[in-house]
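Question (not urgent): is this output format expected?
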Amino acid sequence: MRKILLLAGLAMGVFTANAQDVYKPVKGDVTTEFGLSGGVLNSDFRLNEDGNLLRFRYFTHDKMALRVGFGLSSDNETANAYGANANETGEVVRKNTDLLINLGLEKHFTGTERLSPYVGADVLVGFGSRKRSYENSNNNLGNPSYVANVSGSTTGPGSVSFGLRGVVGADYYFAKRLFLGVEGGLGLLYAKEGKTKTSSTVAGNTTTTEFKSAGNSFKINPSVITGVRIGFVF
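Got this back:
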């Protein structure tokens, strides 16, 4: 009887250990991940890829996941202009921001104990804004010169975009609940530019001009989405 109980205990221990060694996510799990720049050994976190750097997934089933991603690109630059006197200063400022949001679905396949290959699809929605301004300066970001009582701004063209994307990728779980992933996709993106408004003030007199939309664009392009990704399951 003791031997039987001992064998049963060992079997139960092995079963429990195997059950605990679950690397890949299962139904109800949520994952989050970041894109890496510079490769795995010389890496840095970044939030500027149009392929979604910050992403979350919710596994509705062991091999099915809903996903949402955010790609952010922000480019701000300021150039200073100086006059002959210490109190004579001006500046030229440029601010560009782009945001891309994806909503999608992933279908995972068996793979191996640690490798989880998948295919998926995304709906893409994007927004972009552009603004440039100058005060007590000429409108030259690369070589500003001080000009008293002169200011102005250019707002636009902003943009709105919509698209679809098919993806194929794989996650490798190098430790429990931790993974590295790669993903590539083929996307269709339609973008439309908005109006552009310029304003200039010289010696207190302001002139404003508005330009109509420059048009739209339609692109089909393959891409590596966020390069190498690192993430975890919680």
